Amino acid sequence: MSDTQAQFSVLKQTADPVVADAIARLIETGEDHELNRINVLDFSKRNGLDEERVISGFLHASRLGLFDLSWNVLCPGCGGVLDAHSTLKSLRHDDYHCGLCACGYEASVDEQVEVAFTVSPRIRHIAAHDPATLPLWEYFKQVFWSSGVDFNKESFESLTDEVTLDALELPAGEKAQLSLQLPPQFVIVFEPVTHSAQFIDVRGEPTRERQQLSLIYNKAHAPVGTMVMRPGPLRLSLDNQAGVRVLPTVFIAAEALHQLIGKRKPFLTAKRMLSNQTFRDVFKADNLNIDQRLKITSLTFLFTDLKGSTALYERVGDLAAFDLVRAHFHALLEIISSEKGAVVKTIGDAVMATFIRPEHAIVAGLRMRAAMDALNAERGTDDLLVKIGIHEGPCLAVMLNERQDYFGQTVNIAARVQSLSTSQEIHITGPVIEAPAVAALLDKEAIKPIQKQAALRGIADKIVVYQIT
């Protein structure tokens, strides 16, 4: 058996076998571009597979060496990849700059960091492993733009034909000249390898005199500048001092360009990855550095605690209580994982979990209550009563006590809201109940939450909470 066959054999044991087979087919028969920066959500949709199982399958495949995982910082404006990292530890919390959009962005992990998978060169060599050999437009598609930009054949043809005045592959150390006819529109000379851009505001009376513009490319990211020119002929002189091949391209920055690169499809975000149980279990070493602080603008936290656990140990004895508590943990952790959540940590008899969307946390909370009722019914007791609190808001992803954790007032409030419960109530906050999908879910289940004001320890003002009994 070859090494690759052995890896696939292990993958079938650790991941969903159907997903493992789909991954094997992709590696064996997929075109080169299909194996570079794979958008796993798009892969799930095209193959009719469950997203969570596909994410888990690709993570296990990466751990086995079939794929290389990358964390790509994206420009929210154009969808370009501003920086690509092989590990989460490399992500910076300071600004990234997009030359094409002339904007700086802080790398929030919500929608600005894409997680993608590329086949390992040890498994199969593809063109993107040598990006300097890719044709110009393939470089744009496979290296500059992210897997979330939704190009089809027709839209890409219109990009190359309708919104591009000219484009050129310029080897290292060489010079070239382009002769252009400037239209009375905004024009961008953009170079995707060095992320350099020169804006030209073309306006005024047309001229027949040839205008001149010289651009030098080097390893330093040149500042983005804007100059005014008149409609008419332009000689564009280009000097490549960057030490690598560059790809200067002249775009007409009109509505057609914005529409083409504005078409997006869902992709796997770093936020979703951080709240994926398989990632937390399998990639423990690829977590944050101790001094990293990654901003998340919205995350849902669910806290649970077992009511009266001390009295339970006293009443039934250590051994019986331990079995009960272990059964309770097993049920809770299984529910969290199946509802697209991840366990951050357990503290005594309590659980802290995260979910990407508040409705997933609500469903998990309702299922947890039902699971405790079922466990109690099996044993003919009412010993297992779980208090649950759910809150949503901004936070920081950090490292605490050698594990990836979360910090901020959102976390504090979620923990305090859980403590409001006296029995099996679920307490949720305004941001949770105001989510449209949560309102629809509660309406469907005929659940009418009770609104009340609560004082939370360590929180200055009372907050409005909603009790689900």
Short account of what is shown:
This protein is of the alpha+beta class. It is built from 15 helices and 21 strands. The longest helix has 22 residues, at 358-379.
If you had to describe this structure to a student in words, what would you say it looks like?
With 469 residues, the protein is of the alpha+beta class. It has three domains: 129 residues; 90 residues, no CATH class; 181 residues, Alpha-Beta Plaits (2-Layer Sandwich), CATH 3.30.70. It contains 15 helices and 21 strands. The strands form five sheets. Strands 14, 15, 16, 17, 18, 19, 20 and 21 form an eight-stranded mixed beta sheet that branches. Strand 17 and strand 18 form a beta hairpin. Helix 3 crosses helix 4. It is elongated and about 95 Å long. It starts with a helix and ends with a strand. The relative contact order is 0.09.
Summarize the helices and strands and which ones pair or pack.
Blueprint: H1 3-14, H2 17-29, H3 40-47, H4 51-63, E1 67-74, E2 81-85, E3 95-98, E4 103-106, E5 113-119, H5 136-144, H6 153-161, E6 164-167, E7 175-182, E8 186-191, E9 196-202, E10 211-217, E11 225-229, E12 232-240, E13 249-252, H7 255-262, H8 270-274, H9 277-282, E14 294-306, H10 309-316, H11 318-338, E15 341-347, E16 350-355, H12 358-379, E17 386-400, E18 403-407, H13 409-418, E19 426-429, H14 430-433, H15 436-444, E20 450-454, E21 463-468
Parallel strand pairs: 9-11, 10-12, 17-19
Antiparallel strand pairs: 1-2, 1-5, 3-4, 6-13, 7-12, 8-9, 8-13, 14-16, 14-17, 15-16, 17-18, 19-21, 20-21
Helix pairs in contact: 1-2, 3-4, 10-11, 11-12
